[in-house]
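note to self: dont lose this again. the chain is below, predicted strucutre after it. 261 aa total, dont forget to put it in the shared folder this time
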Amino acid sequence: MELTGLQNPMVKAAAELKQKKYRQQQGLFLAEGLRTVEEAVRYGAVQSIFYTAIEDDRTRAVLEEAAAKQIKLVCVSDKVLKKIADTETPQGIIAVCEMRSKRLDEFLASGKMLLVLDRVTDPGNIGTMLRTADAAGVGGLLLLQGCADIYAPKTVRASMGSLFHLPVLSGLSEELLVQAARKAGYELLVTCLDGADNLYKADLQGRLAFVMGNEANGVSPALLAAADKRVFIPMQGRAESLNVAMAAGIVMFEALRQKLK
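---
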């Protein structure tokens, strides 16, 4: 039976998750689009799924997998789905997912490179860096205070399902990060120009917490001062700088290249 009421309590509660305060209150967030929902069902903790008419085998398959996991399925009208969705033209399926996280000491116990974001404010950049970190084999994503919400709809979409593959932890202070990293034998790696080594001549092996800074101002002075390694990405063209997500990808894959050689 198709749910059509825009004032239905389930619909209103799901639509509220587009706002950060309701996500934080409920510990829930939205995963929108077929690819993202597939990964959420496979690797995440999904509470419910809202969907419109089933028109393809992939949608049917993910709903069958969800049903087998006892996930609540709700068939809704196009108007209802549009009320819940963050996008103007939703793909026809949205999952309500539970936030999951590890403690900082669990991140550091992995020994893998960690990506740390310092006051990165664009949700699309954060989602893209999470996706790239996933592809590069990074152990997790740490967001310092002042970053955009990792669970914002745009961030979730940009991660293309990687949010359900990698652990994330938000709201850390600079001081806590530095102290915990030092205690766990991690070195802080930053990108900058002053006193930095060429990325392709730097040693990126070992336990590294790689910090990417704010889009406009870079890494904070405190983190620059605490950094054990500073690198710059050599460029030959006339562009003044790189997008933060692009720069992060270059560094993470250089670290992977060194690991694989």
